[in-house]
Amino acid sequence: MAASMTKGVLNCCRIICQNSKSSASIYKASSPIWQVPLRNSSYSSTYLEPTYRKADLDQPLDASDDRRFLPIKAAKNDEVSTSTLDPLLNKFIRQMMRKGNKQISRLVMDRTIERIKQFQLEKYHKETSEEKRDLINLEPISIIYQAVENCKPLLTIQHARRGGVMYMVPIPVKPSYALYKSIDWIIEASTGKHRTNTDNRVWDDMAREFIAAAKNDGGAIRKKQELHRLCEANRAYAHYRW
Amino acid sequence: MFSIVRPVLRRSACACRLITSSSSNNSSTEQGSGTINFNELFQKGIENPIRNPVKKGLAVCRTNQTDPSQHTIRHEGLYYRVAPEAIQRWMKEGLHPDIYPLFRAFNESCLMVRRPAIEIMECMRAADYSLPAIRYMLYGRAGSGKSSTLAHLMHFCGSQDWVITHVPWAPVLHRYSKERVPSTFKEGRIDQPADAAKWLSRLMTTNDPLLKTLNLKTHRKYIWSRREVTEEGDALTELIDFGLQRVKYAPDVMGAVIRELKLHASSGNVKVLVAIDGVNGMWEQTRYIREESRHKFFHAQELTIVQHLMEFLKNDWTGGASVCTVDEGATIKEMNDPLTSYMPRFLLGQKGFDFLDPFIPVHVPDYSDKEANSCLDYYTDRKWIQHPAGLTEAGRTEMFFLSCKNPLELYKVSRRW
């Protein structure tokens, strides 16, 4: 075990060294903002991802499956075999977490889902005509997915110095950054200090924010539009990306 | 009569009440085939997952019998609809705070008919009201439905024209009261005029049309000050109104009203229900600091309101009943202690138990199989359960496992589904 661990660490170090070299070379050409440093993994690269979902576990294992011969990582804390497990919600909970208080973060997410259902059901049960009823989306998960999708930016701003002047250069975003930024804006819009009624609970405001964002409305969507407007204003400097 | 009250045994086998077998089979296969690849999802951007509409449930989870005085053991585990007026009168306060948004969302307010409530109802029907008032004590784990049972019983008695005096949460009296003055009536006691006025106003709102039609009179003369006097033979509503106008005298008026109600109940003019939630808070230390030392606190027994309510809990009067709950949340004992218990003897302490003894303890258990299934049937009917897995048999089993069928925990688990 110890031998494999040291081997793993060495492997990682090599990767980092290679990476840092390449990043340095890129840095000279243009300053990259997407460079993410690799962290040391406690597992060697030979380790496989764990299988923890009940549906996956029920499927038969081939005679030639890698999982029969190679070591497997331990499952993470939030990787459990509940039916309600959702990758986006887990990401949201992780990003919302402050000071390692995951319990609180999870509670806020649960209560947000509760509030979304309550707000939508209130509209649904008060609506008398069947046609209008069918238009109301009652599924909280689908509303959250829609909201996050709507808040994703297409472009962002990168600063570049040319001839002693800082230019704001619009560049396309990576999908992972778009997801991060979308979630960030939703969290900020529902928890920030700019809120008019600070007596409201976080989950109340967050549920309203999700429902609004699913309809392309609300604070997070406005943030996205502001950024897009800024990119549009600086489109003349787009060629400074190279 | 007392043979009815017994610990409720959980019934093991229960008919499966879920929808139709074909629909549940369909959704289970969908669930089985759907595996999620995290990396793929994040790379291509997470898309809106498509969910198939689920067939309507056919399970029976409601009863048309909205009159609680007609409820019997046949209605066990079924939901009955409470009229908005009844909610406004008897259940405006006292239920769990999470249930009110749910009432709003469902556009109706329903309570489940449960066995402990039925047991007490049977006792109340069979009781002889020429004998001293019987005290019923609801006890059970946190979130098992003690307050809901109390609300059901208040609805039961209220629909039969009982006068109802309700204290939604007794510990409030000795935790959050802002206005406290030394009593003028008796030395060493503390008055809380605002809280007493609140109790009087609640008495008026819960029994508003009834108190006026009954036209109860006072039995003696009360002298509040040199000019303010309540004569013998004045209406009881006038006395209550006086307490609401002159808040300074509200704690003493409360005592007078309780005395009058006891006398009227004893003479058979009216029946009175005393409903107190978290009664064990009346034998606890308060959070109010004494003047002589920062480290000494007043005891709840020194509060005037508590003393008056204890007059009501004595069994020296006839023609009524009192229903109390003992709650773990109402005590300031160390709840992390593994030796804690939800039993009345532990929560009331020696003094409280001696005072209330004899009483009829009624255990409020967690949901049985039938009740838990009925609860989820109702949630499904109201479209509260949205996750497709929640409509399958396996999903239900998972929810029951996560919540231990505790009503509050089951609701908390169902938030995510």
The assembly state of the depicted protein chains is: heterodimer
Strand order, biggest sheet of chain B? Answer: 4-9-12-3-13
Mean pLDDT of chain B: 82
Topology order of chain B in helix (H) and strand (E) letters:
HHEHHEHEHEEEHHEEHHEEEHEHEHHH
- Give the H and E element order of chain A: HHHHHHEEHHH
Helix content of chain A: 40-55%
Radius of gyration of chain A: 23 Å
Largest sheet of chain B: 5 strands, parallel
Number of helices of chain B: 15
Beta-strand content estimate of chain A: 5-15%
Largest sheet of chain A: 2 strands, antiparallel
Low-confidence stretches of chain B: 1-39, 41-58
CATH homology-level superfamily of one domain in chain A: Ribosomal protein S7/S5
Specify which chain pair forms the largest interface.
Answer: A-B, 37 and 38 residues
Keywords, separated by commas or semicolons:
heterodimer; A: 242 residues; mainly alpha; Ribosomal Protein S7; two-stranded antiparallel sheet; 9 helices; 54% helix; B: 417 residues; alpha/beta; two-stranded antiparallel ribbon; globular; disordered N terminus; ribonucleoprotein (chain B); Ribosomal_mS29 (chain B); structural constituent of ribosome (chain B)
